C-alpha cells in the first residue's frame, strides 16, 4: 500500500514529522480532497535517456543472485561503519562478491497483487553496490552546480521524499513552480507505461532524475562538469569504475535510480485489514494456524477506526469516488488527468477529466472529509529507513 499519509521517521538520525501528500500519487489524492494544488512550470529541462549499464569485468556473470525482499532495511543501511567513507572501506565493500552480485527481488506482501506493474529491473539491474552508490549520490550536495543542495533538498526522507512547502527552491534561491513528486513506491508503474514527472516528460525514473539534476532552476548540474567532479573524488571514481566501468551521466541516473526503486513503504493498517478480511469467514479451527493467525493478529494490533471505515466507503463508493483514479495496489492509475489546476480565468475547461466533473457535483460534509482523512492515514505504512550520512571523503 502506498504511503498516503506519512507518520513514521524515514531515516536513522532524525525525529518524526508528518506530511499528508507523500505516496507516489497522493498529491493528487489531496487534490481530490480539495486541500492543495500546484501550478505547472513552462521551463523544460534537458531530456536524457538513462542507458542500460553494461556489467564491468569485476562483475562476472557467474555470480549467484541473492534474494531480498524489496523494502528490506538491509538494502538502505549503507556501508557498515560511522563517519565519512574512507577509500579503504569502499574498496573492501566492493571486493565482496555479494556487493556486485545482481539481486533477485521479491515483492513486499502488499505489492504482490500488483506484480504485473513492477518495472522491468533487467533494464537497470539492482545490486547492493549500485544501490549504495545511488544512496551516496542522493544525499550528496556536491551533485548540484554550487554544492548547496542534494536530492534531499526537494525529497526529504521525513516527508515521504517530498517537501513540506508548495514549491521547492533550487540553486541560487530560485523558486520552483511546482511541488516535487514523492519518490516512494516508484518501482510500480502502469502496464506498458513508465512516464514520470507531473507532465510525463520523463520516460523513466532514471530519466526524471537526470532532468532534475540538469534543470537550471533545480540543481543546475552540467553533465560534463559533474562527471568530471565525481571522477575527481576517489571514492566515487572507484565505485563507478567497478560497477559501471566509468563515471558517466547515464550511470549517475542509473545509480540513483536503483536507490529510488528501493524506497518502498511497509504494510499499513489498511493492508492488514484487507489481508484479514480474506480469511475472516473461515472456521475457527483453520484460523488458528499461519498465515491466517498472523493476519488476524496484525489486523487486531492496528485496527481501523470507525471513521476510517466510513472513509473507506466514501473513497471506493459513489460518495466521493476517489477510486475512479486512485485504484490498484499503489492507489494510482499512473495516468495524467486534467482536474482544472492552474487555470487563471473563470471559463469552461473543455479538457477537464470527465471523472473530476462528476466528482465536482458531490457535496462532502465536514465529517465526510474527516473520515476520508482517517482512511488515508490508515493507508500509511512505515517509511523506508535510510542511512543519511556516510559519503565519500
SSE blueprint and pairings:
Elements: H1 26-32, E1 66-69, H2 87-95, H3 97-100, E2 103-106, H4 128-139, H5 205-214, H6 223-231, H7 234-243, H8 249-261, H9 269-277, H10 284-287, H11 292-301, H12 306-316, H13 354-359, H14 366-378
Parallel strand pairs: 1-2
Helix pairs in contact: 2-7, 4-8, 5-8, 9-11, 12-14
Quick description:
The protein is an all-alpha fold. It has helices at 26-32, 87-95, 97-100, 128-139, 205-214, 223-231, 234-243, 249-261, 269-277, 284-287, 292-301, 306-316, 354-359, 366-378, and strands spanning 66-69, 103-106.
List keywords for this structure.
393 residues, mainly alpha, Cytochrome Bc1 Complex, Chain D, domain 2, 14 helices, 2% strand
Notes on the protein architecture:
With 393 residues, the chain is an all-alpha fold. It has a domain at 38-261: Cytochrome c-like domain (Cytochrome Bc1 Complex, Chain D, domain 2), CATH 1.10.760.10. Helix content is 32%, strand content 2%. It has 14 helices and two strands; from the N terminus they run H-E-H-H-E-H-H-H-H-H-H-H-H-H-H-H. Helix 12 packs across helix 14. It is globular and about 60 Å long. Mean pLDDT is 79; it is low at 1-61.
Amino acid at each position: 500500500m502506498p504511503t498516503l499519509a506519512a507518520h513514521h521517521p524515514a531515516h536513522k538520525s532524525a525525529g518524526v514529522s508528518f506530511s499528508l501528500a507523500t505516496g507516489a500519487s497522493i498529491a493528487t489524492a489531496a487534490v481530490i480532497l480539495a486541500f492543495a494544488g500546484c501550478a505547472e512550470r513552462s521551463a523544460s529541462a534537458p531530456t536524457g535517456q538513462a542507458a542500460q549499464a553494461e556489467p564491468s569485468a569485476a562483475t562476472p556473470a557467474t555470480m549467484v543472485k541473492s534474494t531480498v525482499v524489496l523494502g528490506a532495511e538491509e538494502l538502505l543501511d549503507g556501508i557498515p561503519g560511522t563517519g565519512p567513507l574512507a577509500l579503504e572501506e569502499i574498496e573492501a565493500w566492493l571486493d565482496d562478491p555479494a556487493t556486485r552480485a545482481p539481486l533477485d527481488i521479491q515483492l513486499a506482501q502488499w505489492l504482490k497483487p500488483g506484480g504485473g506493474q513492477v518495472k522491468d529491473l533487467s533494464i537497470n539491474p539492482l545490486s547492493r553496490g549500485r544501490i549504495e552508490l545511488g544512496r551516496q549520490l542522493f544525499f550528496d550536495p556536491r551533485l548540484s552546480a554550487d554544492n548547496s543542495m542534494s536530492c534531499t533538498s526537494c525529497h526529504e526522507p521525513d516527508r515521504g521524499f517530498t517537501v513540506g512547502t508548495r514549491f521547492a527552491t533550487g540553486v541560487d534561491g530560485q523558486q520552483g513552480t511546482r511541488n516535487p513528486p514523492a519518490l516512494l513506491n516508484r518501482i510500480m508503474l502502469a502496464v506498458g507505461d513508465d512516464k514520470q514527472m507531473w507532465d510525463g516528460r520523463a520516460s523513466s525514473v532514471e530519466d526524471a532524475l537526470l532532468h532534475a539534476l540538469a534543470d537550471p532552476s533545480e540543481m543546475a548540474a552540467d553533465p560534463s562538469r559533474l562527471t568530471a567532479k565525481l571522477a575527481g573524488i576517489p571514492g566515487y571514481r572507484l565505485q563507478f569504475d567497478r560497477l559501471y566501468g566509468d563515471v558517466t551521466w547515464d550511470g549517475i541516473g542509473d545509480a540513483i535510480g536503483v536507490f529510488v526503486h528501493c524506497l518502498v513503504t511497509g504494510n499499513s493498517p489498511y493492508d492488514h485489514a484487507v489481508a484479514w478480511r480474506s480469511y475472516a469467514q473461515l472456521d475457527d479451527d483453520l484460523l488458528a494456524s499461519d498465515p491466517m493467525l498472523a493476519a488476524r493478529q496484525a489486523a487486531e494490533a492496528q485496527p481501523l477506526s470507525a471513521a476510517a471505515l466510513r472513509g473507506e466507503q466514501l473513497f471506493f463508493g459513489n460518495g466521493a469516488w476517489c477510486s475512479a483514479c486512485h485504484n490498484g495496489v499503489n492507489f494510482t492509475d499512473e495516468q495524467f488527468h486534467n482536474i482544472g489546476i492552474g487555470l487563471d480565468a473563470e471559463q469552461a475547461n473543455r479538457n477537464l477529466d470527465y471523472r473530476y466533473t462528476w466528482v465536482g457535483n458531490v457535496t462532502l460534509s465536514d465529517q465526510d472529509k474527516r473520515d476520508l482523512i482517517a482512511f488515508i492515514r490508515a493507508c500509511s505504512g512505515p517509511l523506508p529507513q535510510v542511512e543519511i550520512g556516510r559519503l565519500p571523503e
